[in-house]
Amino acid sequence: MRVLLTNDDGVRAPGFVALLEAFRGQAEVMAVAPQEEQSAVARSITFRRPLRLEHQLDEPDCQVYAATGTPTDCVLLGLCHLMKDKPDVVVSGINRGANLGDDVLYSGTVAGAMEGSINGIPSLAVSLERSPHPDYSHAARFALELSKEVIRRGLPPKILLNVNVPARPEILGHKITRQGHTQYAQEILSRVDPRGQEYFWVTGALPTGEPEEGTDFAALAHGYVSISPLSMDLTAGAWIGELSTWEI
Ligand code: MN
After folding, report:
1. Which of 130, 137, 152, 162 has the fewest CB atoms within 10 Å, measured from its CB?
2. SS3 of residue 103 by DSSP
3. Which pLDDT score is estimated for 177?
């Protein structure tokens, strides 16, 4: 098995180290992760400044690089520059905190998997529910086992798997889920800097989700690993007919 690993919490994040350790010795590993945290950068790509790569680990079956860019940049650097042969799977994570519902569109972790998928490589994003003392070991083993099955079965083009693992120690199994709905309570905080200029922070309460039956939120709330197949085709197909009736 040949794997490309990335994340959005940065190359030193414990979730990424756990993922790396799970695959090391089991696969030919190429790991390219952002030097600094890139959470919530979604599918942002860098093209107005240069990217730098720092080779952090050089072993026969395990290469680790830190890159100055986003998760998307990292996957592109891996696929188009560092790897001689294409990977069998791209795994992005393990994120510190779940990526559920509408949050998947902000997530840098999910974006890393999307970049693999759009390049024709079966890809998964893996996140661990937020907890004060996160233990990534179960999620890392799960990522390894699921990767083997993904390679055996394959995934259709532009379909990726978004995996969320509960933080509790006793996990009941897994559920195949759909993306749920997130309620946001964002606010803009404005302050004045020492030079008298106004500046802003996007803030507010943490988003919450409806644990509606069949959703990613429900699976996690009930102690199951959630696996959602996500499509990169965002077309609202069911609405094409309705829109066609408009007088434009
Ligand atoms: Mn993150």
Report:
1. 152
2. helix
3. 98
- Protein residues within 5 Å, CB atom, of ion ligand 1: 8-9, 39, 95
Residue 169, SS3?
coil
Hunting for tokens 């008298």 — which residue is that?
196
Closest CA to 114 of 163, 165, 75: 75
Hey, what's the torsion of the CAs at 135, 78, 76, 231, to 10 degrees?
-50
**What pLDDT shows up at residue 64?**
98
- How many angstroms separate the alpha carbon of residue 247 from the centre of ligand 1? 43
The Cα-based distances of 24 to 8, 63, 209, 239 in angstroms read 20, 10, 35, 46
Question: Is 171 in contact with 224 (CB distance < 8 Å)?
Answer: yes
9-22 b/e with 16+ CB inside 10 Å = b?
A: bbbebebbbbbbbb
First-last CA distance in the chain: 52
CA 181 to chain centroid, in Å, comes to 18
Amino acid at 221: A
> 121-162 pLDDT, tens per residue?
999 999 999 999 999 999 999 999 999 999 999 999 999 999
**What is the distance between the alpha carbons of residues 225 and 179, in angstroms, rounded to a whole number?**
13
pLDDT at position 213 = 97
Q: Give the single-character DSSP code of 35.
A: S
Residue 93 region, left (φ>0) first, then alpha (ψ -120 to 50), else beta? left
